[in-house]
Amino acid sequence: MVIKSKISPLTIQRLSTYLRGLKYFAQEEGKASVSSDDIALWLGGTAAQVRKDLSYFGSFGKKGRGYNVDELIKTLEDILGLDKSWKVALIGLGRLGRSMAVYKGFRNSSFEIVAIFDIDPQKVGTKYNETPVYHLDDLTRVCEEEGILISIVATPAEVANKVFQIALDAGIRGILNLSGRSSFNPPPHAFIKDVNMEAEIESLSFCLTHY
Amino acid sequence: MVIKSKISPLTIQRLSTYLRGLKYFAQEEGKASVSSDDIALWLGGTAAQVRKDLSYFGSFGKKGRGYNVDELIKTLEDILGLDKSWKVALIGLGRLGRSMAVYKGFRNSSFEIVAIFDIDPQKVGTKYNETPVYHLDDLTRVCEEEGILISIVATPAEVANKVFQIALDAGIRGILNLSGRSSFNPPPHAFIKDVNMEAEIESLSFCLTHY
DNA sequence: AGTTGTGAATCTGTTCACAGCC
DNA sequence: GGCTGTGAACAGATTCACAACT
Asked: pTM of the predicted model, to two decimals?
């Protein structure tokens, strides 16, 4: 898979959504092929955008026929790097962290939380959902041993920046940031994705107030 | 607060982030004023963007001096509609739902989960974190009685579309969608915000694979 | 001197529209 | 006839750069 140019994060997120839709489509509807119109209908976008998003990576459809569902699923998994299996470190075993540890969305998927890190002596050394809980000080060692490159940060916002730095120093290259803090400029070869539920619910408040 | 034009959701999200940063700033640093540069530094954006974002709503700074921190906090809360108190219905008391029920980010904030809805007979009628759990069938009644306009949907993806429709029919006007499903075109006066952790972690997979 | 507020310029993302193929 | 793939046109968001103000 060769990428011609820098791809927008928006495109990537949509590909991810297409993939989820297609899997459902394959399972429920049992159809063998879809058009870009079908996909757009499924998720409320436009057909042109679906085709454009895919076109950055190649030509996967047949003119006049549409896309083979199974092939397109494989292609999207390939593009997104989901053909591999990613080991993930969860940092922070508070309430949100615990819910991530058992999050169904990550089951049967390419991501597996293989180690949990915290600093609470009561938690360190135990297991949660059959996954061992280490002290944050052991992050570098465990990540090296296990080959962990992705981490979910579910710590309190106050300590998030410190934790980001520790994670990057430990060789983590991708961070899913659930801490609510988002003020970190990662180095060139690392990536941080912010998921900020408080900001989202506040934007609902804005919409209901003004529109 | 009068709004001149349609504001981009991106701007709203940033305002939310500015607000969080400013609160921390006021608490930790104790400074009375900030420049757009300070704010930009805090969250990795540019000073011009901070000023532009604010300019959609008015002129809150003093040339040569910057912004008064306390005033700007109040202004942002005003813009975002956080001067009110929002009652929230949580739909779906699975693992993710339970973590939302006690989510610290919503504590001491303008959002309070006052009712939980599920369809599991074992859960209906009980309380979770001191909040009553109702059957989904009672959504309309309870939302009317309590004046609930915002809902967090934390159900499995398979039933999400059905739940969206039920919520909108019950008078819900803002939905924070954590279900992983995102294919719903809300009617003109309702708003759905998707938070999709699986898509985010998949985009990390993409970045690590290709960059 | 320092910093805002904002039109103009640039950059990025989306949609259009149609040639080309099935 | 139907649908893809894509350059060109358009729309939207960000950055620049500077006048105006303290």
From this structure: 0.91
